[in-house]
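Chapter review. Work through the record for Transcriptional regulator, AraC family before attempting the end-of-chapter questions.
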Amino acid sequence: MKPKYLDRTPSHSCFNVQIKKENHFLKVWHFHKELELDLISSSSGTLFAGDYIGKFSEGNLVLLGKNLPHMWVNSEEYFIEENDLFAEACVVHFTEEFLGEEFLKQPEMAEIKTLFINARRGIVFKGDTSVINKRIQSLKKFSGFSRVIELLKILNLLAKWEAIDLLSSQNFVQSFSDNKLKKLEVVYEYIYNHFNTDISLEKVAEVACMNPSAFSRYFKKAHGKNFIKYVNELRINYACKLILDNKYAIIDVCFECGFNNLSNFNRQFKLITGSAPSNYLKEQKR
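Structure tokens for Transcriptional regulator, AraC family:
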């Protein structure tokens, strides 16, 4: 299954602001030309953005750039019928050129232009973002010229925010936009649906309609690393998020991320992060 293109074109305005309140967020791997600013008001789950996989929860603030495939998957309890849980978010959609093609070319817009470029990989804003959150939540109260000015003020705050993490790898963003590498779209979809199960090179090559050796060369050309290393890094990236949540035993993290035994998990974790899983949380808090 390829990522679906969804039309988020603003109607009767240069940008859209929505308060989404549903039983669960749309579970569809999709992309669109508009940037998407998400403030999670309630609910939790897993965010897939490019080749990033990580947990999200209430209060998270994320900016997803144009054409970055993504999917917000709520935790299992949000899909149980007849529960009283809701997934709620304030979502803003706008194009990079929402104020005209010359807008970002002006020297005063240099920081916002950099923000938009970084957003093509996805950005999570860390730390206490409550000041920005309140402005985003109040955005629907504005109209006309004041509405545009308020969005620019929000973007200016985001552009100056120093505590950020970029989500997807640059190689993914380049490969997704490269028409010569379109076969990887179905591969990414398969990986994200099965990353925590036993994934074999042979099976993924079959999904891509290629023989294993040809697929291996094709994948390494796109990412600069072999397929197994890519999957292991994806799994360990997810493991880091679970460990930082401080809710799971190391053995549970191991199997949740798709590793079949603890010794291999420990070895791969230290190889990729430089730390043992049991020490990772302590080291990150220093």
